[in-house]
Amino acid sequence: MSRNIPVKGDITAIGEVRTPPVARVPDPAALFDRRARRFRALSGPDGIGPYLSFLADIAEAQHQLASELGEPEALEPAGVERALAYGMPPLDRNAFAPDDAFMSLSERLFGALEPIAKPDAAQEALTTIRSAAPSDIAAMVADLMADSVPVEYMAHYAYVAAALQLHFVRQASTLPEKQLKHVGDGACPACGGPPVSSVIVNWPQANGSRFCSCALCATLWHHVRIKCAICSSTKGIRYQEIEDGPGSIKAETCDECGCYVKIFNQQKDASLDPFADDVASLGIDLLMKDTNFRRGSFNPFLLGY
């Protein structure tokens, strides 16, 4: 059972700071370390616990590589300035094509994932990916960038998605945070990608403000509360949650576009992670399957839901 909580009135200015930052770029090593720790804390022997443990191992490998690689080379300043001037994301995910550097990074990550415990099917998928031609990897990258992945190959795409996350998180970390601007509804100001979820933060300078988290580069961008994270409508916004749940995890539904995006309240639970808890709160997605709303966010590790 769920609770459906309607919202009335214009209360989009919720939060202790009226002008929170437009965006926050990620710290790669810290991001993947936090994500790995959260996946590990959420894992266990039952339900999706073993899967969360597997994802913790992937995040730990991402963290290790991010630490070893250090700071990436900054993007060409003129290109960044031009994109910002035209209201475009500096990291153009749609124009990204795997180059030698990305393929090398991917192979290092895939190699680090060989020894981790995984189901036979996941190991077979990893073996297949490591022997795939560059053109096949490029095709999979294009599918992931279009948020269009064949569910039957979810395991294969998950590995490529992990490599893309590592690459784009590192690239996003070099961007001029204070110069980033909103680029459109439901779009990351750094790479233009969709959100994985949103969080109500407990930061000292923005306590109570809501930020969307990019599914690809993990950049956070400010998005006022009681406003659809996908189409930005403030009409027909409601919240659904699992009955008798903690009250810190909800699905924000929008009557205008028919989408829902999860919202995590770090004021109530500071340990919540916008990516790890999106997977761990699969129960919300199963609940929403019985409604007319569709998932508006994207998570490569929740394909099919």
Short characterization:
The protein is of the alpha+beta class and 305 residues long. The protein is built from nine helices and nine strands. It has helices at residues 28-42, 49-69, 77-85, 100-113, 120-130, 134-145, 154-172, 276-280, 282-288, and strands spanning 2-6, 23-24, 195-200, 210-214, 220-222, 237-242, 249-254, 259-265, 294-295.
Labels describing this entry:
FdhE-like fold; 9 helices; 9 strands; globular
In N-to-C order, the SSE pattern is EEHHHHHHHEEEEEEHHE
* pLDDT averaged residue by residue: 93
Identify the CATH homologous superfamily of the largest domain.
Answer: FdhE-like domain
Number of helices: 9
Q: How many domains is the backbone divided into?
A: 2
**N-end to C-end Cα span:** 19 Å
Instruction: Estimate the strand proportion.
Output: 5-15%
Class per helix and strand makeup? alpha+beta
Keywords: Cytoplasm
InterPro entries: FdhE-like_sf, FdhE_C, FdhE_central, FdhE_N, Formate_DH_accessory
Domain FdhE C-terminal: 226-302
Domain FdhE central: 188-225
